[in-house]
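Researcher: Structure prediction, please.
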Amino acid sequence: MTNLSEIYSQRIIELAANIPRTERLTDPDASATAHSKLCGSTVSVDIKMRDGVITDYGQSVKACLLGQSAAAIVAAHVVGATAEEIREVRRRMRAMLKEGGAPPEGKWADLAILEPVRDFKARHASTLLVFDALEDAIAQVEARETGEGGDVTAAEDGPLEAHRNEAHQKAVAGTS
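Model: Predicted structure follows.
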């Protein structure tokens, strides 16, 4: 089993210190927030999409180093990604942490730095927050495009809650 101090590598610290795309979008197609009750981490995302491709992205990350690192890697690669690509990366991350699966590959290979987190179940939720929020935002856009509407929540495991429009409006207005 990995020692807890081993998962906080210099690279994790560097990623967390340099999170890209930390400005919220003023006119997103969708916004979503994922929150872990266990650790208190919260990640909010805004997306713009066109023809199933993410064309712009903004986020607010109030999470531990692991959640910040995951958010940094996602923000570096999300623009230009398709909804299906994001779903596949999310599926692979979840499998990597919960089932011992292989980490994502290609442009998402940096996510392998989070592989040691699999030994610490209590850290899974914060590591996956950005993926849960992003999936929620994508589902909102797709539901609107198909006319299904409704309130879609991507958080499918652990103590996660989705809070969308109110949190985004407060972020845009600069209030809390």
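Model: The chain is about 40% helix and 15% strand.
Researcher: Thanks, that helps.
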